[in-house]
Write a structure and sequence with these properties.
The protein is 36% helix and 22% strand. The chain has helices spanning 4-11, 40-48, 91-98, 110-113, 120-126, 158-161, 166-173, 180-190, 212-223, 228-234, 252-262, 283-292, 313-333; strands at 32-34, 60-61, 63-64, 70-74, 84-88, 102-104, 139-154, 163-164, 193-210, 242-243, 247-248, 264-266, 272-274, 297-305. The strands form 3 sheets. Strands 1, 2, 4, 5, 6, 7, 9, 10, 11 and 14 form a 10-stranded mixed beta sheet that branches. A two-stranded antiparallel sheet has the order 3-8. The protein has a two-stranded antiparallel ribbon with strand order 12-13. The site of one 2-acetamido-2-deoxy-beta-D-glucopyranose has 4 residues, from loops. Residues 225, 227 line the site of one 2-acetamido-2-deoxy-beta-D-glucopyranose.
Length: 334
Protein backbone atom coordinates (compact mmCIF):
# COMPACT_ATOMS: atom_id res chain seq x y z
CA UNK A 1 0.00 0.00 0.00
CA UNK A 2 1.35 3.41 -0.90
CA UNK A 3 -0.23 5.34 1.91
CA UNK A 4 -3.62 6.63 2.66
CA UNK A 5 -3.78 9.33 0.04
CA UNK A 6 -3.42 6.77 -2.68
CA UNK A 7 -5.87 4.32 -1.25
CA UNK A 8 -8.31 7.01 -0.61
CA UNK A 9 -7.87 8.25 -4.10
CA UNK A 10 -8.58 4.85 -5.42
CA UNK A 11 -11.85 4.49 -3.70
CA UNK A 12 -13.94 7.44 -3.62
CA UNK A 13 -15.79 6.35 -6.47
CA UNK A 14 -17.83 3.95 -4.72
CA UNK A 15 -19.87 6.35 -3.07
CA UNK A 16 -19.74 8.71 -5.90
CA UNK A 17 -23.18 9.81 -6.60
CA UNK A 18 -24.49 6.71 -8.14
CA UNK A 19 -26.32 5.47 -10.91
CA UNK A 20 -28.63 8.17 -11.74
CA UNK A 21 -29.30 6.32 -14.88
CA UNK A 22 -30.76 2.95 -14.16
CA UNK A 23 -28.85 -0.28 -14.02
CA UNK A 24 -29.60 -1.08 -17.65
CA UNK A 25 -28.20 2.22 -18.83
CA UNK A 26 -25.12 1.55 -16.77
CA UNK A 27 -24.73 -1.59 -18.81
CA UNK A 28 -25.02 -3.77 -15.78
CA UNK A 29 -26.84 -6.94 -16.65
CA UNK A 30 -26.63 -10.61 -15.85
CA UNK A 31 -24.01 -12.52 -17.79
CA UNK A 32 -22.25 -9.50 -19.23
CA UNK A 33 -18.46 -9.65 -19.34
CA UNK A 34 -16.38 -7.18 -17.35
CA UNK A 35 -12.63 -6.67 -17.44
CA UNK A 36 -11.77 -6.05 -13.81
CA UNK A 37 -8.17 -5.29 -14.74
CA UNK A 38 -9.03 -2.40 -17.03
CA UNK A 39 -12.64 -1.47 -17.46
CA UNK A 40 -13.86 -2.13 -13.98
CA UNK A 41 -12.83 1.36 -12.98
CA UNK A 42 -14.94 2.78 -15.74
CA UNK A 43 -17.88 0.73 -14.58
CA UNK A 44 -17.26 2.22 -11.18
CA UNK A 45 -17.55 5.65 -12.79
CA UNK A 46 -20.82 4.72 -14.36
CA UNK A 47 -22.14 3.12 -11.22
CA UNK A 48 -21.21 5.96 -9.01
CA UNK A 49 -22.09 8.86 -11.12
CA UNK A 50 -19.04 10.05 -13.04
CA UNK A 51 -20.81 9.95 -16.35
CA UNK A 52 -17.95 11.07 -18.57
CA UNK A 53 -17.60 7.56 -19.98
CA UNK A 54 -21.17 6.43 -20.29
CA UNK A 55 -21.02 6.23 -24.07
CA UNK A 56 -18.29 3.68 -23.91
CA UNK A 57 -19.31 0.07 -23.64
CA UNK A 58 -18.00 -1.07 -20.32
CA UNK A 59 -19.49 -4.52 -20.31
CA UNK A 60 -19.62 -7.07 -23.14
CA UNK A 61 -22.32 -9.40 -24.20
CA UNK A 62 -20.47 -12.69 -23.84
CA UNK A 63 -23.06 -15.29 -22.91
CA UNK A 64 -25.79 -16.77 -25.04
CA UNK A 65 -29.27 -15.83 -23.78
CA UNK A 66 -28.31 -15.20 -20.15
CA UNK A 67 -31.59 -13.41 -19.54
CA UNK A 68 -33.44 -16.72 -19.86
CA UNK A 69 -31.63 -17.97 -16.75
CA UNK A 70 -32.14 -14.87 -14.64
CA UNK A 71 -34.41 -14.41 -11.66
CA UNK A 72 -35.49 -11.22 -9.96
CA UNK A 73 -36.03 -11.33 -6.23
CA UNK A 74 -37.96 -8.78 -4.22
CA UNK A 75 -35.68 -8.00 -1.30
CA UNK A 76 -37.67 -5.11 0.12
CA UNK A 77 -38.01 -5.86 3.79
CA UNK A 78 -39.55 -4.00 6.65
CA UNK A 79 -36.44 -2.01 7.33
CA UNK A 80 -38.19 0.88 8.92
CA UNK A 81 -36.12 0.75 12.05
CA UNK A 82 -32.85 -0.72 10.96
CA UNK A 83 -30.16 1.87 11.40
CA UNK A 84 -26.74 0.32 11.09
CA UNK A 85 -23.88 1.79 13.12
CA UNK A 86 -20.44 0.51 12.13
CA UNK A 87 -17.12 1.31 13.80
CA UNK A 88 -14.18 1.79 11.45
CA UNK A 89 -10.69 2.19 12.90
CA UNK A 90 -9.24 3.16 9.51
CA UNK A 91 -10.02 4.31 6.01
CA UNK A 92 -9.77 0.82 4.48
CA UNK A 93 -12.53 -0.33 6.79
CA UNK A 94 -14.65 2.59 5.66
CA UNK A 95 -14.24 1.43 2.09
CA UNK A 96 -15.01 -2.15 3.06
CA UNK A 97 -18.28 -1.03 4.53
CA UNK A 98 -19.16 1.09 1.54
CA UNK A 99 -18.41 -1.79 -0.78
CA UNK A 100 -20.13 -4.32 1.36
CA UNK A 101 -22.38 -5.55 -1.44
CA UNK A 102 -19.56 -5.98 -3.96
CA UNK A 103 -17.87 -9.31 -4.53
CA UNK A 104 -15.31 -10.13 -7.17
CA UNK A 105 -14.08 -13.71 -7.42
CA UNK A 106 -10.30 -13.82 -6.69
CA UNK A 107 -10.33 -10.35 -5.07
CA UNK A 108 -10.34 -9.87 -1.32
CA UNK A 109 -10.84 -6.13 -1.51
CA UNK A 110 -12.83 -5.54 -4.68
CA UNK A 111 -13.03 -1.83 -4.02
CA UNK A 112 -9.36 -1.60 -4.90
CA UNK A 113 -10.21 -2.87 -8.36
CA UNK A 114 -13.48 -1.02 -8.59
CA UNK A 115 -11.85 2.29 -8.90
CA UNK A 116 -9.54 4.32 -10.96
CA UNK A 117 -7.50 7.11 -9.41
CA UNK A 118 -9.55 9.71 -7.67
CA UNK A 119 -8.33 12.79 -5.94
CA UNK A 120 -8.54 12.97 -2.18
CA UNK A 121 -10.97 15.81 -2.70
CA UNK A 122 -13.38 13.66 -4.68
CA UNK A 123 -13.20 10.99 -2.03
CA UNK A 124 -13.91 13.21 0.91
CA UNK A 125 -16.62 14.94 -1.06
CA UNK A 126 -18.30 11.63 -1.74
CA UNK A 127 -18.16 10.74 1.93
CA UNK A 128 -19.71 14.10 2.76
CA UNK A 129 -16.60 15.32 4.58
CA UNK A 130 -14.12 18.18 4.23
CA UNK A 131 -10.72 17.15 2.77
CA UNK A 132 -8.89 17.56 6.03
CA UNK A 133 -11.16 15.08 7.77
CA UNK A 134 -9.24 12.33 5.98
CA UNK A 135 -6.01 12.98 7.86
CA UNK A 136 -4.00 10.31 9.61
CA UNK A 137 -5.10 8.89 12.91
CA UNK A 138 -8.76 9.73 12.54
CA UNK A 139 -11.34 7.08 13.23
CA UNK A 140 -14.76 6.73 11.70
CA UNK A 141 -18.26 5.67 12.54
CA UNK A 142 -20.75 5.15 9.74
CA UNK A 143 -24.43 5.34 10.35
CA UNK A 144 -26.36 3.88 7.45
CA UNK A 145 -29.86 3.10 6.40
CA UNK A 146 -30.02 0.54 3.64
CA UNK A 147 -32.89 -0.06 1.34
CA UNK A 148 -32.20 -2.77 -1.22
CA UNK A 149 -35.16 -3.38 -3.50
CA UNK A 150 -34.40 -5.99 -6.10
CA UNK A 151 -31.79 -8.64 -6.44
CA UNK A 152 -31.22 -9.85 -9.98
CA UNK A 153 -29.35 -13.12 -10.07
CA UNK A 154 -28.55 -16.15 -12.16
CA UNK A 155 -30.15 -19.53 -11.56
CA UNK A 156 -28.14 -21.77 -9.25
CA UNK A 157 -27.42 -24.06 -12.20
CA UNK A 158 -26.37 -21.15 -14.43
CA UNK A 159 -22.87 -22.46 -15.13
CA UNK A 160 -24.33 -25.73 -16.37
CA UNK A 161 -26.97 -24.25 -18.64
CA UNK A 162 -25.52 -20.99 -19.96
CA UNK A 163 -22.98 -20.98 -22.79
CA UNK A 164 -20.40 -18.60 -24.13
CA UNK A 165 -21.12 -17.02 -27.49
CA UNK A 166 -19.54 -18.94 -30.36
CA UNK A 167 -17.05 -16.15 -31.19
CA UNK A 168 -15.59 -16.53 -27.71
CA UNK A 169 -15.45 -20.28 -27.99
CA UNK A 170 -13.35 -19.85 -31.14
CA UNK A 171 -11.05 -17.36 -29.41
CA UNK A 172 -10.49 -19.73 -26.52
CA UNK A 173 -9.47 -22.47 -28.92
CA UNK A 174 -6.61 -20.20 -30.05
CA UNK A 175 -5.25 -19.56 -26.55
CA UNK A 176 -2.00 -21.46 -26.04
CA UNK A 177 -1.12 -22.61 -22.56
CA UNK A 178 1.93 -20.77 -21.26
CA UNK A 179 1.53 -17.54 -23.22
CA UNK A 180 0.23 -15.07 -20.68
CA UNK A 181 -0.45 -12.26 -23.15
CA UNK A 182 -3.04 -14.43 -24.88
CA UNK A 183 -5.01 -14.52 -21.68
CA UNK A 184 -4.67 -10.81 -21.01
CA UNK A 185 -5.61 -9.97 -24.62
CA UNK A 186 -8.72 -12.12 -24.29
CA UNK A 187 -9.58 -10.37 -21.04
CA UNK A 188 -9.14 -6.93 -22.57
CA UNK A 189 -11.48 -7.84 -25.40
CA UNK A 190 -14.22 -9.79 -23.61
CA UNK A 191 -13.71 -9.51 -19.89
CA UNK A 192 -12.26 -11.45 -17.00
CA UNK A 193 -15.50 -11.86 -15.08
CA UNK A 194 -19.21 -12.04 -15.78
CA UNK A 195 -22.00 -10.42 -13.79
CA UNK A 196 -23.56 -13.16 -11.71
CA UNK A 197 -25.75 -11.01 -9.52
CA UNK A 198 -26.57 -7.39 -8.76
CA UNK A 199 -28.82 -5.54 -6.36
CA UNK A 200 -30.55 -2.25 -6.93
CA UNK A 201 -31.88 0.08 -4.27
CA UNK A 202 -30.22 2.81 -2.25
CA UNK A 203 -28.36 3.49 0.98
CA UNK A 204 -28.37 6.70 2.98
CA UNK A 205 -25.31 7.17 5.15
CA UNK A 206 -23.40 9.56 7.35
CA UNK A 207 -19.72 9.33 8.20
CA UNK A 208 -18.59 10.74 11.54
CA UNK A 209 -14.94 11.41 12.25
CA UNK A 210 -13.44 11.00 15.74
CA UNK A 211 -10.23 11.46 17.60
CA UNK A 212 -9.15 8.00 18.82
CA UNK A 213 -9.92 8.82 22.45
CA UNK A 214 -13.59 9.59 21.80
CA UNK A 215 -13.95 6.77 19.29
CA UNK A 216 -12.72 4.35 21.98
CA UNK A 217 -15.13 5.76 24.55
CA UNK A 218 -18.04 5.40 22.16
CA UNK A 219 -17.01 1.87 21.24
CA UNK A 220 -16.79 0.86 24.91
CA UNK A 221 -20.19 2.36 25.49
CA UNK A 222 -21.65 0.26 22.69
CA UNK A 223 -19.97 -2.89 24.02
CA UNK A 224 -21.62 -2.14 27.35
CA UNK A 225 -25.12 -1.72 25.97
CA UNK A 226 -24.98 2.01 25.39
CA UNK A 227 -28.32 3.72 25.94
CA UNK A 228 -29.99 5.50 23.05
CA UNK A 229 -29.42 8.89 24.62
CA UNK A 230 -25.70 8.15 25.13
CA UNK A 231 -25.48 6.91 21.55
CA UNK A 232 -27.11 10.11 20.32
CA UNK A 233 -24.63 12.12 22.38
CA UNK A 234 -21.60 10.27 20.99
CA UNK A 235 -22.95 10.82 17.48
CA UNK A 236 -23.26 14.56 18.09
CA UNK A 237 -20.72 17.37 17.57
CA UNK A 238 -19.99 17.18 21.29
CA UNK A 239 -17.76 14.17 20.51
CA UNK A 240 -17.13 14.19 16.75
CA UNK A 241 -14.29 16.00 14.99
CA UNK A 242 -16.31 16.20 11.82
CA UNK A 243 -19.95 15.60 11.29
CA UNK A 244 -20.27 14.26 7.74
CA UNK A 245 -23.20 15.29 5.58
CA UNK A 246 -26.06 12.83 5.43
CA UNK A 247 -25.83 11.59 1.87
CA UNK A 248 -26.83 8.63 -0.28
CA UNK A 249 -25.62 6.42 -3.06
CA UNK A 250 -28.48 7.53 -5.29
CA UNK A 251 -29.48 10.99 -6.36
CA UNK A 252 -28.79 12.96 -3.25
CA UNK A 253 -30.06 16.29 -4.53
CA UNK A 254 -33.65 15.23 -4.19
CA UNK A 255 -33.13 14.36 -0.58
CA UNK A 256 -31.01 17.24 0.62
CA UNK A 257 -33.84 19.54 1.59
CA UNK A 258 -35.82 16.81 3.24
CA UNK A 259 -32.81 15.73 5.28
CA UNK A 260 -31.99 19.28 6.28
CA UNK A 261 -35.45 19.85 7.70
CA UNK A 262 -36.33 16.41 9.04
CA UNK A 263 -33.14 15.02 10.52
CA UNK A 264 -32.19 17.91 12.76
CA UNK A 265 -31.17 17.30 16.32
CA UNK A 266 -30.03 19.62 19.07
CA UNK A 267 -27.27 19.36 21.66
CA UNK A 268 -28.01 20.27 25.27
CA UNK A 269 -26.23 23.58 24.56
CA UNK A 270 -28.80 24.24 21.90
CA UNK A 271 -26.57 23.71 18.88
CA UNK A 272 -28.45 22.29 15.92
CA UNK A 273 -26.95 19.55 13.76
CA UNK A 274 -28.13 17.02 11.21
CA UNK A 275 -27.94 13.35 12.19
CA UNK A 276 -29.11 10.20 10.51
CA UNK A 277 -29.67 8.89 14.03
CA UNK A 278 -32.79 11.08 14.08
CA UNK A 279 -34.40 8.14 12.26
CA UNK A 280 -34.08 6.00 15.38
CA UNK A 281 -37.50 4.87 16.56
CA UNK A 282 -39.16 6.95 13.88
CA UNK A 283 -40.70 4.50 11.38
CA UNK A 284 -42.77 7.41 10.05
CA UNK A 285 -39.59 9.31 9.10
CA UNK A 286 -38.04 6.15 7.66
CA UNK A 287 -41.03 5.62 5.44
CA UNK A 288 -40.97 9.22 4.28
CA UNK A 289 -37.25 9.06 3.59
CA UNK A 290 -37.77 5.84 1.65
CA UNK A 291 -40.01 7.67 -0.79
CA UNK A 292 -37.12 10.05 -1.56
CA UNK A 293 -34.55 7.29 -1.98
CA UNK A 294 -33.44 6.06 -5.36
CA UNK A 295 -34.64 2.63 -6.38
CA UNK A 296 -32.23 2.19 -9.27
CA UNK A 297 -28.76 2.55 -7.83
CA UNK A 298 -26.53 -0.46 -7.99
CA UNK A 299 -25.79 -1.24 -4.35
CA UNK A 300 -24.40 -4.71 -4.86
CA UNK A 301 -22.59 -6.59 -7.61
CA UNK A 302 -21.15 -10.10 -7.74
CA UNK A 303 -18.64 -10.92 -10.44
CA UNK A 304 -17.41 -14.41 -11.23
CA UNK A 305 -14.58 -15.63 -13.39
CA UNK A 306 -15.50 -16.34 -17.03
CA UNK A 307 -13.22 -19.35 -17.36
CA UNK A 308 -15.89 -21.35 -15.52
CA UNK A 309 -17.45 -21.67 -18.96
CA UNK A 310 -14.35 -23.00 -20.72
CA UNK A 311 -14.79 -26.56 -21.92
CA UNK A 312 -11.10 -27.49 -21.68
CA UNK A 313 -10.13 -27.99 -18.02
CA UNK A 314 -6.44 -27.28 -18.66
CA UNK A 315 -7.22 -23.92 -20.24
CA UNK A 316 -9.72 -23.18 -17.51
CA UNK A 317 -7.00 -23.65 -14.88
CA UNK A 318 -4.37 -21.71 -16.82
CA UNK A 319 -6.68 -18.76 -17.39
CA UNK A 320 -7.68 -18.71 -13.73
CA UNK A 321 -4.04 -18.78 -12.61
CA UNK A 322 -3.03 -15.87 -14.82
CA UNK A 323 -6.07 -13.83 -13.81
CA UNK A 324 -5.59 -14.56 -10.13
CA UNK A 325 -1.98 -13.34 -10.32
CA UNK A 326 -2.98 -10.11 -12.01
CA UNK A 327 -5.78 -9.42 -9.56
CA UNK A 328 -3.49 -10.04 -6.57
CA UNK A 329 -0.86 -7.75 -8.06
CA UNK A 330 -3.42 -4.98 -8.49
CA UNK A 331 -4.61 -5.34 -4.94
CA UNK A 332 -1.10 -5.15 -3.56
CA UNK A 333 -0.21 -2.10 -5.64
CA UNK A 334 -3.31 0.01 -5.17
C1 LIG B 1 -42.13 -6.39 -2.94
O1 LIG B 1 -41.96 -5.56 -1.81
C2 LIG B 1 -42.87 -4.47 -1.74
C3 LIG B 1 -42.52 -3.59 -0.55
O2 LIG B 1 -42.57 -4.32 0.62
C4 LIG B 1 -44.30 -4.98 -1.67
O3 LIG B 1 -45.16 -3.88 -1.66
C5 LIG B 1 -44.54 -5.86 -2.91
O4 LIG B 1 -45.85 -6.42 -2.81
C6 LIG B 1 -43.51 -6.96 -3.00
N1 LIG B 1 -43.72 -7.70 -4.23
C7 LIG B 1 -43.69 -9.03 -4.28
C8 LIG B 1 -43.89 -9.63 -5.63
O5 LIG B 1 -43.54 -9.73 -3.29
C1 LIG C 1 -42.51 -2.39 10.16
O1 LIG C 1 -41.92 -2.17 11.44
C2 LIG C 1 -42.51 -1.11 12.17
C3 LIG C 1 -41.72 -0.85 13.44
O2 LIG C 1 -40.95 -1.96 13.79
C4 LIG C 1 -43.95 -1.47 12.47
O3 LIG C 1 -44.57 -0.41 13.19
C5 LIG C 1 -44.70 -1.70 11.14
O4 LIG C 1 -46.02 -2.12 11.38
C6 LIG C 1 -43.98 -2.74 10.30
N1 LIG C 1 -44.61 -2.79 8.98
C7 LIG C 1 -44.90 -3.94 8.36
C8 LIG C 1 -45.50 -3.83 7.01
O5 LIG C 1 -44.65 -5.03 8.87
C1 LIG D 1 -24.42 -3.42 8.96
O1 LIG D 1 -23.18 -3.15 8.32
C2 LIG D 1 -22.31 -4.25 8.27
C3 LIG D 1 -21.02 -3.78 7.67
O2 LIG D 1 -21.19 -3.26 6.40
C4 LIG D 1 -22.97 -5.36 7.48
O3 LIG D 1 -22.13 -6.48 7.44
C5 LIG D 1 -24.31 -5.72 8.11
O4 LIG D 1 -24.97 -6.68 7.31
C6 LIG D 1 -25.18 -4.50 8.22
N1 LIG D 1 -26.42 -4.82 8.90
C7 LIG D 1 -27.60 -4.39 8.46
C8 LIG D 1 -28.75 -4.75 9.32
O5 LIG D 1 -27.72 -3.74 7.44
C1 LIG E 1 -31.99 -24.96 -13.84
O1 LIG E 1 -32.70 -24.27 -12.81
C2 LIG E 1 -33.98 -23.79 -13.24
C3 LIG E 1 -34.56 -22.93 -12.14
O2 LIG E 1 -34.28 -23.44 -10.87
C4 LIG E 1 -34.86 -24.99 -13.60
O3 LIG E 1 -36.13 -24.53 -14.02
C5 LIG E 1 -34.20 -25.78 -14.72
O4 LIG E 1 -34.95 -26.93 -14.99
C6 LIG E 1 -32.77 -26.17 -14.32
N1 LIG E 1 -32.15 -26.76 -15.51
C7 LIG E 1 -31.32 -27.79 -15.45
C8 LIG E 1 -30.76 -28.28 -16.74
O5 LIG E 1 -31.01 -28.32 -14.39
C1 LIG F 1 -29.52 -2.83 27.68
O1 LIG F 1 -30.12 -1.69 28.24
C2 LIG F 1 -31.54 -1.64 28.11
C3 LIG F 1 -32.05 -0.32 28.66
O2 LIG F 1 -31.05 0.57 28.91
C4 LIG F 1 -32.16 -2.83 28.85
O3 LIG F 1 -33.56 -2.82 28.66
C5 LIG F 1 -31.57 -4.14 28.27
O4 LIG F 1 -32.06 -5.23 29.00
C6 LIG F 1 -30.05 -4.11 28.33
N1 LIG F 1 -29.54 -5.27 27.64
C7 LIG F 1 -28.51 -5.98 28.10
C8 LIG F 1 -28.10 -7.15 27.28
O5 LIG F 1 -27.94 -5.67 29.12
Amino acid sequence: MMGHGMVAAAVLLVFRAAVLMDAAAANVDIGRGVDVLQRFGIIGDVLYGDVSNTKETVTRDILEGADRFTEILNVTKNHTNLLNITFCPDLDCLFDVYFDGFQVEFADKPWKLLTTSRSLHMISDRFGLPDMAMGFGQKFVIVSYRRPLKRIKTYDNFTQIAELKSTLVEKIKCISIGIESMVTDFIAEYGSHYIDEYTIGDTVFQVLVYLPVFYDMFYKCVLNNCSESDTALYLSPVYTEYQGQVTSIGSKDIMEKWIETNLQMETSQGDKYVSLYALKNRPDLCRELATHMDGQSVVGLHLKVVSTFFADPVKRTWFAEVLDNHVKLREVNL
